[in-house]
């Protein structure tokens, strides 16, 4: 089991919409639902976060914020889009300033259904994101090894 | 005596991270049980540390990492010197230097959050340092020595001779361990007002080193608590454990204070309880001579 899977640190951001899902995210991080038993810590700091919990439909104003948070997070990272708005824009999809889904701005790994999403299903999303993180970590290691093997014959030829 | 102290210091270097990590893990578990939840496994801090060190090193600037490494080295050295029984002045200098390096690392990044965190850490240093000095002076008054081994083997109930000093030390321990209500510079819990404060611009291995330094620090700080109870084997076990539990309890039932209150209360406690406790020692010495 990868270390990252046992210690997924979270950052959460509400990209507009009705705020209901964000309240559920906060609820799922309180002692009541005990996200810490999976090793989760809410950092609020993108540099220390592994999983990005994002709610809302994303509008023109907060695109740079969403991208900024995502880009500051170190690899490997996972994005959990929570609620109907984060999937498609939800009831706000027709608004003039709404992007209609998180995936239009940053890549999403896990979708949590609901309007608003339940804390239990958000926790399930976090656990799945942790598994995806472990797979990404493994893929990164494999790619690095492959790159090293690809490099060595070239270096030998140079000698 | 000297040889035995060197072994103690080396044991601290080797076993420090394991003991410190367990201290952190158990406190997270106890906190969870106090809040009526299951909580993370006791070895969770080790998972966290392994993950942090598996991350790629990505410092904000070229200055940050040397400062963090210096913080780590001097934090470890403080404990080493305490257990090895070095000069008290040297210990105070090294303790201050370790904290200063972390503050400089936070200032170096240009993030407003870590700058405010660094400001607050400096305030905390001015708050806790007088009491740390008074504690070491108190030990000297009881044992006639600054050596850890001598103080531990003094055979007197230190806690009964230095109750004020002990109270003051527990007060500043909460600051040094960054527990609530004095976790104003950075916190292990979600810290909404300052993101992560002092450690806001540290990620991956850099944060891992700061965490590891914290573990080493908690070992020597509880080592100081142990000195108050060392005259009796049962007290030596129960005393530090009770202190540990009380600090976790305070962490859970108090809200974060403003820096003014943190600073003034720490100084009032240091002057009333700390100096007040030392005055009789000087008076008695005057009478005897």
Describe the structure using short key phrases:
heterodimer; A: 159 residues; alpha/beta; five-stranded parallel beta sheet; B: 289 residues; globular
If you had to describe this structure to a student in words, what would you say it looks like?
Chain A has about 160 residues and is of the alpha/beta class. Chain A has five helices and five strands. Chain A has helices spanning about 5, 20-30, 65-70, 85-90, 120-159, and strands at about 10-15, 40, 50-55, 80, 110. A five-stranded parallel beta sheet of chain A has the order 2-1-3-4-5, sandwiched between helices. In chain A, α2 links the parallel β1 (about 10-15) and β2. The mean pLDDT of chain A is about 85. Chain B has eleven helices and no strands. Chain B is an all-alpha fold and about 290 residues long. Chain B has one domain (about 1-289). Chain B has helices at about 1-35, 45-55, 65-85, 90-105, 110-145, 150, 160, 165-175, 205-225, 235-255, 260-289. Chain B is globular, with a radius of gyration of 19 Å. The interface between A and B is medium-sized, with 23 and 31 residues.
Structural class of chain B: mainly alpha
Q: For the residues shown, what is the average pLDDT of chain A? A: 87
Radius of gyration of chain A: 18 Å
- How many distinct domains of chain A? 1
Shape of chain B: globular
Mean pLDDT of chain B: 87
Show unreliable segments of chain B: none
- The outline of chain A comes out as globular
Based on secondary structure, the structural category of chain A is alpha/beta
Q: What percent of residues of chain B adopt helix (DSSP H or I)?
A: over 70%
Rg of chain B (CA only): 19 Å
